[in-house]
Design a protein that fits this description.
The structure is a homotrimer.
Chain A (H helix, E strand, L loop, with lengths): L5 H6 L19 E6 L7 E7 L2 E7 L6 E4 L13 E3 L2 E3 L6 E2 L5 E2 L14 E7 L2 E5 L22 E6 L2 E2 L3 H9 L8 H4 L1 E11 L3 E12 L4 H7 L13 E8 L2 E8 L7 E9 L7 E10 L6 H33 L10 H13 L9
Antiparallel strand pairs in A: 1-10, 2-3, 3-4, 4-9, 5-6, 6-7, 7-8, 9-10, 11-18, 12-18, 13-14, 14-15, 15-16, 16-17, 17-18
Helix pairs in contact in A: 2-6
């Protein structure tokens, strides 16, 4: 390498900080989804996690949801095992009640010490998702909730999906961003040859664009449904579509645009929320919006097929990233020999926007 | 706090020794139950544990039971996997035989070294329980076996119950002693308002007395059976009964007395025997004795109902104490903010009568 | 002990090196079986292990099998999850292809770094077994594959068996070599009294010879089939047969010869292949060859019975050695008080031919 510009230096693996990317913690100064709205009925509470911190989200019979530490200070039991009474959450064991401000009201117990007070967490609901803000509370007002407009757009139908995946969130970002892994899904989608069109990057994002040509195999019906029609001109899927994948820290999106249609035919918004303290598991919250077809209800008819198709793709990806995490454990650290500039840029983004591992800061 | 008497100082959390109560080991200088008599038939052996020590209890075809280390010195196999031959226990693998005094008799093997000798443990049987004494053998004669007279009293019928519970024994003592947790069982027993009547304490015991009023819900049939009748005077369960809970180290009892009956309507004797070396699991041995009713056989008829009722209460308690233990693990130690003087006294009792944790003594 | 010859000194436990035999690693300079030939069809790959090292064995559509590290250097995924294409194995994730020499061929990816190269392992096939050589590659040509001639001898029928057993391989060697454990199988074979006839030992082997007398119980039918007939002369199994057990490092054999028949009635060849890095689990590859009887097809008719019989013996042994391993874990090391000279010699053999534990060499 002769011309050592700052850009190539930044992309050069050797210049990266000596951090194991699988130990980088997510930055808490963002709104993270922790549950689907439909999981939490009126008068109920739910126990969720962000990076090892247990949180109880309460939906009282009336009024907005609220979030507290999911630990009763008296005996450390999860409050989410308790019962919602009016605007309070009551511990299952001795019945200590806590308000939305975390104040304790103790029925019939003569407390000798000052009643304990629970930590509260900023908590909002939008587009069918429940979000919490676990970072610096003062920032919570200035940091916007993610915007997912297709969810509310009648021209699209949206599928909500997600599972707990046993790996660090960085594996998820890399999996979606690196379209050279199409071969993994060849049994489902046939042989697809990706062509990398270019990338953009900034302080808080990396974006990659691809197009595809089908090299063998028939286009599956489910895919045809996304593109609105089966192509009859023999140029089936041949570099007519553009797929844009973007990690806008800490979220990720994927958009497919095709010739002759103004709006994207598909848009995916996805977040990977660390569950345990080491952040080696994550819960996925995905919103997959597909543009409705010209023939009314056709998309609805085909919906079960689309669900099955996307579920299988997701399952294949999940198996792979969990194998990657398993290899990381066996080899006691990251041994990846990454060569694709997009992924090298993505790794740098995740490290620079994330938090150093507890190990590195002592 | 202005008047700082020695009593309040002793109750004050800050004055307690800086020990994590969940690490305090049980004192071995007592008789601990390790099995029910009915579990061990003639000519059989059973493998049990006390605080990580494997013990084999043998019931020969003739004569009294005996207890040895459950490890064959030759190849370290559990002798309890072997066979009882006459007054000997024979190892399953190579057939080495051990007497009740732990002496080895080796069939057909030319031993070059001195035959190994097994440790023996004092072992007695009473009231359907098999007890061992794991402490200083010289003390075993002066320390009495626990007395549970109701078991032999024809006016009572006794239920034996117990399971392995995944928690430190101290959680069990606290659970039973703190009647403010009635709310946990409200689905089973309705709303009960406990009134704390007072406590007594000594070097080796803590005793608390309560009475109750039903605030809502109907008295369950199973409960009525214990009290002999459904109350018709509208004062249903209103402060007419006294419940006395006593930890007489290391055992625990619960007694209910009611107006107009000389003897208790119910008496529970219960022991929590640490299983693993860290003493974070315990096996429960409970004897629940209920006074027979005036109508003969009525209690026997209702027995299955009573079993189901007590089993469900026990299950609710078990779930709670296991959640407490789990929180202790996650938080890496005891974070309880205990405020109830009875429980604070009980914790002190368990610490002072128990053994310091291995961690603390190095 | 008065006469302290060098021989007795060598057998004396105190004179043994202070190594825990359960930490001694197997010597990699031998051919170890890692799979049955029938497990690996044409055009397929299989993932196996030797002492923690993951290996992929590939059987291309044409040509001989080959073995590589089962880790794609790009993202550390097991290549055995991939697909065989011609003479290549292709990674499931991004499609990187590797030749039998471990060279990487990358389809459509612009690699900036030198393509990574995988380690290859010597790999051969014989008698229905796939062997690898994990030691010094230069030695692989001079070290012979094990010879198991009965497998190819039409006078014998051979059963292949094996499972993963959760113990160090040394427990397996000791189990088979010490015939004083016949008592373990007394429910299956009746009471057998072993008589030790003597032993031989050399730098790389220990051999023990026994004969047996039945002391009670009837000879099982399955056993009679091995010996060709039920003995009618009342001397049933009384010291007429000789059983020879030999550990020829690292393999083991067992042979039974009986009066009046020139060739052995039974021959067992068995290998124990460490699976994990600590070598505390092993996969068993056993070949049990039984001489055909005079009446044609009688052995074939009885075959299912023989399989069931040997399977039950193997299961009893497996339970025992896994209990031994469990005791080793609980006691945090080897506490065996071995007294039988054959086993003491065998332990010495395994230590001297094996590799020091990683712990001991730092």
């Amino acid at each position: 390498m002769t011309g050592n510009t700052s850009e190539t230096a930044a992309l050069d693996g050797a210049a990266l900080p000596q951090q194991d990317i699988r130990r980088v913690r997510s930055n808490p100064d963002f709104w993270y989804p922790v549950a689907w709205s439909r999981e939490l009925r009126r008068g109920r509470a739910i126990g969720v996690r962000y990076a090892g911190q247990p949180i109880v989200v309460v939906r009282p019979e009336a009024g907005a949801i609220f979030a507290l530490d999911d630990v009763c200070p008296h005996r450390q039991l999860p409050l989410s095992k308790g019962v919602v009474c009016g605007d309070f959450i009551r511990c299952a064991y001795h019945g200590l009640k806590y308000s939305r401000r975390g104040q304790c009201f103790s029925p019939g117990m003569k407390l000798e010490n000052e009643p304990p007070r629970l930590r509260t967490w900023a908590c909002r609901e939008k587009d069918g998702l429940i979000f919490v803000f676990m970072g610096d509370l003062e920032k919570s007002d200035s940091i916007a909730l993610p915007d997912i407009p297709r969810v509310r757009d009648p021209h699209y139908r949206t599928r909500r999906f997600g599972k707990v995946v046993q790996c660090h969130y960085s594996f998820m970002h890399e999996n979606l961003m690196d379209m050279n892994h199409q071969i993994l899904h060849s049994r489902l989608v046939g042989s697809m040859k990706p062509r990398f069109l270019g990338m953009d990057r900034g302080e808080d994002f990396v974006e990659a664009r691809y197009t595809f040509a089908r090299t063998s195999g028939r286009q599956p019906l489910s895919e045809a449904l996304i593109y609105g029609q089966r192509r009859k001109d023999g140029r089936d899927f041949a570099y007519r579509d553009v797929m844009t994948i973007r990690t806008q820290y800490p979220y990720q999106t994927l958009q497919i645009e095709t010739e002759g249609i103004d709006e994207p035919v598909m848009e995916l918004w996805i977040a990977y929320v660390p569950q345990d303290r080491e952040e080696l598991t994550n819960r996925v919250f995905g919103l997959l919006s597909i543009r409705r077809l010209k023939i009314p209800f056709l998309l609805d008819l085909a919906w079960p097929l689309l669900i099955a198709f996307t579920e299988r793709v997701f399952t294949e990806d999940r198996e792979i990233v969990e194998l990657e995490q398993q290899a990381w454990r066996e080899q006691d650290g990251d041994r990846n020999q990454e060569v694709f500039p997009v992924i090298m840029a993505l790794r740098q983004l995740l490290i620079q926007n994330g938090m150093p591992s507890r190990k590195d800061i002592g």
